[in-house]
Amino acid sequence: YRNKNFHENVAARFNTWLTRSQAIPFSCRLVFRVQDSLSFYYSRILELLLRHAHRLRNLALEVPWMSGWFQPSAPDGVSLPLLESLFLDPANDPGPIFGISFPQSLLKTAPNLSSVSLSSIQMWETIHLPWSQLAHLEIRGLVFPVETDFLVRLSGLLCRCDNLEALRLDLPSRLSGQD
């Protein structure tokens, strides 16, 4: 019961902070850990964030995207006109990411988005971003052996990034099968 009150208090304080900041653009980093018992509170905090999405300048989400526990829809008329950078990392998720639950339509309404950092190769194929406007792209968590068509898929992605100035691929320091 005490744990429930604590998380309700966190959500209430987050709401107060968002409301008091009024029209000021802000950056936000949310880090959640995998605990099914807390998914209601995670959802509540993300729904509060979506209400103020039009003021987001930088967004970092370290959120367990497992089993679709959060399936928000972007409220009508919500956009991300100020969003410049996006960092997505499925916290504590040991497996591949196939079910990104962040509202896809919302990411298409980010005309200033220029920097994206994704935590896995699967993410770039499951999340819809305005690739052509990105200047900086980082893909972390690449592991070997990668599929044989990795370079073909990567070159297909890079062809969609017309304005790309910087690319960072975090490759493992040791290739599989090599000592």
Task: Name some characteristics of this structure.
179 residues; alpha/beta; 6-stranded parallel β-sheet; 17% strand; globular
Secondary structure topology:
Elements: H1 2-20, E1 26-31, H2 39-51, E2 56-62, E3 85-89, H3 104-107, E4 115-118, H4 121-126, E5 136-139, H5 150-159, E6 166-169
Parallel strand pairs: 1-2, 2-3, 3-4, 4-5, 5-6
Helix pairs in contact: 1-2
Structural description of this entry:
The chain has 179 residues and is α/β, with parallel strands linked by helices. Helices cover 29% and strands 17% of the residues. A six-stranded parallel beta sheet has the order 1-2-3-4-5-6. α1 runs parallel beside α2. The longest helix is centred in the N-terminal third of the chain and has 19 residues, at 2-20. The chain is globular, with a radius of gyration of 18 Å.
